[in-house]
Amino acid sequence: MRTHARIITAAVGLLTLLGGSAVKADSGLLALVPFEFTAGSTTLAAGSYIVDQNTGSRGVLVVRSHRGGVFLPTQTALHARAGGSTRLVFHRYGHRYFLRQVWFQGTRGYAMP
């Protein structure tokens, strides 16, 4: 129960931090992530990232920066809620952050395993 409360607190706090930092760019979602995080099995440094739906493979997202990137297979495609915003959702366990969901406004959301 305590871990669940930490996850919720971290997600709400991070969404507040990223509220003005995630926008839909022509080439994908542009986000400024202020902390190191894990996407799939890859740890990525804090910085600016573009998250895009891979048009070549359904169910795969691309997270990239000027330093490199990673392809992420998604577990589920989620339907966006009316008025839902473009955002990244992270879970925090201890001092580590994990990218858990990506939402594209007006389209879909994706969950990572």
Describe this structure in words.
This protein has 113 residues and is α+β, with helices and mostly antiparallel strands. It is 15% helix and 50% strand. The protein is built from one helix and eleven strands, in the order H-E-E-E-E-E-E-E-E-E-E-E. The chain has one helix at residues 2-18, and strands at residues 23-25, 28-33, 37-39, 42-44, 47-53, 60-65, 68-73, 76-79, 87-93, 96-103, 108-111. Strands 3, 4, 8, 9, 10 and 11 form a six-stranded mixed β-sheet that branches. A five-stranded antiparallel β-sheet has the order 1-2-5-6-7, with no helix packed on it. The longest helix has 17 residues, at 2-18. The chain is globular and about 30 Å long. The two termini are 21 Å apart. Residues 4-26 have low confidence and may be disordered.
Provide a quick synopsis of the model.
The protein is an alpha+beta fold. The chain contains one helix and eleven strands; from the N terminus they run H-E-E-E-E-E-E-E-E-E-E-E.
